[in-house]
Amino acid sequence: MRILSKTQLKELVLYSPQHIARLEKAGAFPKRVQLGSNRVGWVEAEVLDWLQTRLDSR
User: Fold this and answer.
1) CA-to-CA dists, residue 26 to 2, 30, 47, angstroms
2) Where on the phi/psi map is residue 32: left (φ > 0), alpha (ψ -120 to 50), or beta?
3) Contact 4/41 with Cβ under 8 angstroms?
4) How far apart are CA 2 and CA 28, in angstroms?
5) Three-state secondary structure of 12-46
6) Structure pTM?
7) How far apart are CA 55 and CA 58, in angstroms?
8) Distance between CA 50 and CA 28 in Å, rounded?
9) Contact at 8 Å (CB) between 58 and 18?
10) Rounded to an integer, what distance in angstroms lies between the CA atom of residue 36 and that of residue 56?
11) SS3 state at 58
């Protein structure tokens, strides 16, 4: 399992951190994982599945 940082996520998804946070809050994006008191990440497989779903629905 690989965890993506905010920078890696932004490169992969091309959304701003604010937009990603809005999508997460709406339940439309994979939830972040709290790694430490000031560190979060996203499970790469969940983000890739989310992207694939978007591609499949176009």
Assistant:
1) 24, 10, 16
2) beta
3) yes
4) 21
5) HHCCCHHHHHHHHHCCCCCCCEEEECCEEEEEHHH
6) 0.90
7) 6
8) 9
9) no
10) 34
11) coil
Give the Cα separation of 9 and 29 in Å (integer).
12
Token reading at 53: 């779903």
Structure tokens at 27: 């339940």
pLDDT value for 41: 97
**What pLDDT was estimated at residue 57?**
96
Beta-carbon contacts of 2 under 8 Å, excluding residues fewer than 6 positions away, are 43, 44, 45
Averaged pLDDT in 10-residue chunks for the chain of 58 residues:
95 94 97 96 98 96
d(CA 42, CA 22): 15
At 54, which amino acid appears?
Answer: R
